[in-house]
Amino acid sequence: MRCDGRGRRAHGMGCETTALALSLMLCFAGPARAEPAETAGPLDVMDSPVMEQASHTTHARAVKVQRQLLAHLGLENGLPRDGSYARALALDERGKHADAVREYTAALAELGGFATRTGQSEERANNWRAKIQWQREQSEEILEQEAYSAIMPGSAMAHYHLARARHEKFLSARAFFGTGPALLWLRAREEYLLVLDLDPRHALARVGLAQLLANGGYLAEARRQFSQLGDKLRDPDLALSVAGYLAALGDRDAAFPFLARAVTRKEQARHAWRSNSLDPLRCDGRFAAVLAHVFRGLDRPE
To answer: Does the global pTM surpass 0.70?
Structure first.
């Protein structure tokens, strides 16, 4: 399925909205492979599609521009070489987020000559700048939540925010490269389980874990976790998370009513606009339609 460019999103504060996933224009239609055998169990991550959760179609022009940027920033054909951006990505994948933040900052400085070197427009350079800023912000969010959970080790909500930050970072990496780092997946799962140990009735953690399992290809276990929500599905505060879970399953028709219920508030709509949790919905015209009434009158999502 090819993206038609009508779905739009933004990364970073005050950045230009662009086509799907900025100039990459990636469409996600749910798990790319069948679920691993039940005998493998949900902990056998290296046997899971989590390491091969691939994008489906990418415009040829976007691929060309991506390669130009990667070469400029020290990457070639998606493989790390020298360069701050390459180092930042590698550090993030190893969970060294403080070091990654410093390298992302250096990469933004290196990006200054991108338009001149590649012959691309300054707007396109700004698109890439926005993507790097978004990745840096996500790493900073993980660091902030790690500090918070360390101060309040018995707080289920503190650990939930850390789980969510790691989960979003995993999804962002997967959206950009087509695969997600297993370490981030495992750490997000660990935090979700810790939350549920502290508070078995924590509905946000339950649906977050279900979505993470679905992101990794463990659909049966994801459905089992989700089934434990019961009547809590009526809680409007869960609507956006449920939309992300259903999107991960590839059930768009079921996801959109929950998305519509969630984005009645602007802060939720802005999160939906930025979050990679909803990537499987972005190529569907209903995604832009659901958000349009919230953003009407705004120059761009903030």
So the answer is: yes
Digit-coded pLDDT (tens) for 18-38: 322 322 233 333 333 333 333
For the beta carbon of residue 254, count every other beta carbon within 10 angstroms: 14
* Residue 264: other Cβ atoms inside 10 A: 12
263 domain residue, yes or no:
no
| Bridge partner residues of 19 (DSSP) | 8
Query: Tokens 């091969």 — which residue?
Result: 52
**Mapped to the 3 state alphabet, what secondary structure does 185-250 carry?**
HHHHHHHHHHHHHHCCCCHHHHHHHHHHHHHCCCHHHHHHHHHCCHHHHHCHHHHHHHHHHHHHHC
3-state secondary structure of 36: coil
Residue 10 in any domain: the answer is no
The CB-side HSE value for 138 (13 A sphere, CA atoms) comes to 29
Return the ∠ at Cα 95 (arms to 204 and 50), rounded to 5°: 60
pLDDT at 26: 31
Q: Tokens 């979505």 map to which residue?
A: 211
* Under 8 Å between Cβ of 180 and 170: yes
8 occurs within a structural domain: no
- Domain span at residue 134 reads 59-151
Whole-Å CA distances, 235 to 8, 152, 205: 28, 26, 14
Task: Report the alpha-carbon distance of residue 276 to residue 289 in Å, rounded.
Answer: 18
Residue 47 lies in a domain: no
**Count of structural domains, the chain:** 1
Let me know: does 295 contact 287? Beta carbons within 8 Å: no
